[in-house]
């Protein structure tokens, strides 16, 4: 085990002991390990072994796993884009996130989509192009750098304005993502078999 791993284990051990309001002497007595050995473990100056950690973790009611460093997971999000009705949607957050984030590309269209309503809340930011946002009785044009936030129970629809696509970053809460961009099952080709995209 590396020096940094020992130091981290010691810090976690000390934090677990202190959170239970135990002194070194009290933990020493309950775990049948000398106080000096515990002190050296907490300082990262003593090699941790199963023989030492098992009685300590039993007294503290924690797992050995709670004391050990784990490799930092790969933070990259690798989810396929999906295309439906001309829209290209790229998930930017991992599956199961509390907040769902997407990059959405709206193609130019002669006929704007129908207004829709559903549970949820949405925040969006225009990256490039011009986005037409119809929200209730409002008909708004959003340019690059502009953002909007609205309750999706208000009738709304979005489309590109002009002759070029509009690209946005869109963030939904869980219910908004489930209904507003319900993508269905993604296939290997990055297409979706079911869902509504408004």
Q: Could you please describe the fold and organization of this structure?
A:
This protein has 198 residues and is an alpha+beta fold. It folds into two domains: 65 residues, lambda repressor-like DNA-binding domains (434 Repressor (Amino-terminal Domain)); 99 residues, Jelly Rolls. The protein has five helices and nine strands, in the order ααααβββββββββα. Strand 2 and strand 3 form a beta hairpin.
Tally of structural domains? 2
**CATH fold field value of the largest domain:** Jelly Rolls
Main sheet summary: 6 strands, antiparallel
Total number of helices: 5
What is the architecture of the largest domain at the second tier of CATH? Sandwich
The amount of helix comes to: 25-40%
Going by CATH, the homologous superfamily of the largest domain would be Jelly Rolls
Which residue ranges are poorly predicted, with pLDDT under 50 across at least 5 consecutive positions?
Answer: 183-198
Class of secondary structure makeup: alpha+beta
Strand content: 25-35%
SSE order: HHHHEEEEEEEEEH
What's the overall geometry?
A: rod-shaped
How are the SSEs ordered, and which strands pair?
Blueprint (H helix, E strand, L loop, with lengths): L2 H17 L4 H8 L3 H8 L7 H11 L21 E3 L2 E5 L8 E7 L14 E8 L2 E5 L2 E5 L4 E5 L4 E5 L5 E7 L1 H7 L18
Helix pairs in contact: 2-4
């Amino acid at each position: 085990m590396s020096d940094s791993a020992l130091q981290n284990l010691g810090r976690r051990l000390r934090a677990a002991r202190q959170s239970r309001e135990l002194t070194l002497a009290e933990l020493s007595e309950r775990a049948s390990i000398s106080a000096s050995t515990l002190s050296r473990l907490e300082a990262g100056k003593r090699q941790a072994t199963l023989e030492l950690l098992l009685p300590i973790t039993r007294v503290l009611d924690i797992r050995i796993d709670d004391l050990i460093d784990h490799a930092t997971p790969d933070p990259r999000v690798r989810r396929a884009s999906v295309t439906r009705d001309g829209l290209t949607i790229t998930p930017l957050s991992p599956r199961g996130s509390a907040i769902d984030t997407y990059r959405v590309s709206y193609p130019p269209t002669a006929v704007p989509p129908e207004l829709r309503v559903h549970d949820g809340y949405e925040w969006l930011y225009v990256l490039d192009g011009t986005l037409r946002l119809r929200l209730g009785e409002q008909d708004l044009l959003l340019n690059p750098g502009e953002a909007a936030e609205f309750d999706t129970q208000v009738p709304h629809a979005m489309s590109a304005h002009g002759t070029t696509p509009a690209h946005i970053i869109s963030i939904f809460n869980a219910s908004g993502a489930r209904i507003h961009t319900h993508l269905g099952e993604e296939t290997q080709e990055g297409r979706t078999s079911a869902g509504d995209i408004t």
